[in-house]
Amino acid sequence: MKTEWNTSLVSSIIQEYVTKHNIQIIITFDKYGVSGHTNHQAAYRGALQYVKTSGNGTVSLYKLPSVSLVRKYIGLGDLPLAILSSRMVKTSSPKNSLLFLSSPGQYLITHKAMRQHSSQLVWFRWLYVIFSRYMVINELEKVSL
């Protein structure tokens, strides 16, 4: 977490995947990285650089916005605020802001996926899995270039 990833290198790796798999949409973190994680921030900067410099205009970039610590850990209690904030995003097209709500079954699938990373499941990550709104509520905002 203490190593800064090179933005140009991240961008070139993204370019390889976009070209190889004919990708049209990239979804990444926002500039704060949701949790302040430097790798998450580097993923955003690399994706942004790629989309800005690719020049082809065929790849759209969406970001997962960071929310305050209180909102991050109130789980479904954040739903009214998420709905309100997604409607307040200044957009010219309905496809510029998307709101996703996981069903109970989908939540259990993500919970199972998190358990596959047993080395990562220290006590505070269990709190994240139980209380984080990101386990059930996710917004995506289209990045305007």
From TrEMBL:
GO biological process: one example: GPI anchor biosynthetic process
Family annotation (InterPro entries): GlcNAc_PI_deacetylase-related, LmbE-like_dom_sf
GO molecular function: N-acetylglucosaminylphosphatidylinositol deacetylase activity
EC number: 3.5.1.89
SUPFAM superfamilies: LmbE-like
One GO location term (cellular component): endoplasmic reticulum
UniProt similarity note: Belongs to the PIGL family.
Listed name of the protein: N-acetylglucosaminylphosphatidylinositol deacetylase
Origin organism lineage: Eukaryota, Fungi, Fungi incertae sedis, Mucoromycota, Mucoromycotina
